[in-house]
Design a protein that fits this description.
Structural class: alpha/beta
Helix content: 25-40%
Oligomer: single chain
Number of domains: 2
Shape: globular
Radius of gyration: 16 Å
EC number: 2.1.1.63
GO molecular function: methylated-DNA-[protein]-cysteine S-methyltransferase activity
Largest sheet: 4 strands, mixed
Enzyme class: transferase
CATH class of the largest domain: Mainly Alpha
Number of helices: 6
Organism: Novosphingobium sediminis
Strand order of the largest sheet: 3-2-1-4
Pfam family, one: Methyltransf_1N
CATH topology of the largest domain: Arc Repressor Mutant, subunit A
Order of helices and strands: EEEHEHHEHHEH
Length: 187
Amino acid sequence: MSHSDQTPSAAASAWVDGGRGTVIRWDVAQTSLGPMLVAASEKGVVRLSFGEDPAVLAERFPKAERVQGGGTFPALLVEIVRAAEAPGETDFDHIPVDVSGTPFQQSIWQALRRIPKGETRTYAELAAEVGRPGAVRAAGSANGANHVSLLIPCHRVIRTDGSLGGYAWGLEIKARLLQREGALLLI
């Protein structure tokens, strides 16, 4: 798995034809945020989620070969666990991701990766940053379509009124991640 592919790509192999011809390595790590599912192709991380059953990988990548652990995957998993446990102290921008989405989703995901640790943006600011200030709801939808939470830090996006908004893995995990990064002092 190359660490040089830092930008989400539009035609990542794991997302083409149900993952046909792709090996997806995966495992579940126990973290202070709960069980964390991590899965990666040779190009990068394809799934990072909390409290999710690994069976989801068979649904998303039905034609891929899915292998628990092995190869260089354990070292990657250690890095990602470190990023979850100490996101304010650990740089994870170098960890490659293998995601696929529309051009708009790709632009939102790239903007998310540019939000510095310890900072947040509103959905409106995110939409404006990608040149679509009227697309606030679409920015929220693109944020929610992110399959590699933490690495594409969708937890750093909040509502205009300052409330946390949503998070696929629960607002408690979102708040804890923001606290660990120094962006949120109190829950």
